[in-house]
TrEMBL record:
Taxonomic classification: Bacteria, Bacillati, Cyanobacteriota, Cyanophyceae, Nostocales
GO molecular function: hydrolase activity
Signal peptide: none
Domain Serine aminopeptidase S33: 57-186
Name of the protein this chain belongs to: Alpha/beta hydrolase
Amino acid sequence: MKTNHSLVLAIVAVVLITLSWWGVLRAQTSLVSRQMERLGVPLLYVAPQNAQNVPGVLIAHGYAGSKQLMLGYAYTLAHAGYAVMLWDFDSHGANTKPLKNNSLKENLNVAYTVLLEQPEVDKSRLATLGHSMGSGAVMSAAINQVDRYAATVAVSPTGASITPNVPRNLLLQAGSWENRFVANAQRLLVSGGGENHNFTQGKARKLVIIPNAEHITILFRHSSHQAARDWLNNTFGINSQSNYVDYRMLWYFLH
C-alpha cells in the first residue's frame, strides 16, 4: 500500500514538473531569442519570429536586479510585435564589471547600438522601459537624445529632469504598496505638465497605479505589462491583437 502511494506521488510530481516547464517554455513560442555580449555587457534580444521593421524597445532593470527580472515585459512586448533588448548593468546579474559613475549610460548605449544591429528592428521607431534605477537611466537617455526615443515607460521611477516636452510620451507606473515611488511619480507627472494624451506631438503623460504591488512584485503584474504595451501601441499606432499573459512565475512556483 505504501509502495502504491509513493508511486502515485512520484507520477504526480513528474506530471507537475513536466507541466510547469511546458508553461515556462511556452512563453518563448513564436519568438526568436539571442544571447549576446558586447564590451563585457551581457545582452538578451527577444523578437517575434519572421518579424520585419518592428519597433525596438530597450528594457533596463533596477538596482540589485537583472535582465531576467524584466522578462515579463520583454515577452509581453515581443508577443505584441516588438523587438526588445535587455542587459545586465555593471555589477548586476552576469555582468562582473565594477559599477562606475557612467556605467548606466555606457551600458545603455551598448544595448542601443546592438539593438540597431538586429535585422528585425525599425531604427526610426524606438522606445525605452526601465524599473527603479533603470527608470532613471532610460528617462535620462530619452531626455538627452529626445529625437531617438518616441516613448518612455518608467516603472517605480527615480529622478530625472522631466519637462512638458521631454522625454517624449512618458508613462509612469508605481505599485500601490510603494508609497515613496508613488509620490515621486506624482511629482514627475506635475513636472511633465500633468496628464496629456497628445501622442502625435510626443507630449503624452500618464501615471498608472498598479494595485496590490510593491517594488518587486510590480514586475510580475500583468496590469503593469499590459499598461506598458498599450502605451507603446498608442505611441506607434499599433493595433496589437496579442492576448499573452506572463504566467511564468506561477509555473516556477508549481515546479
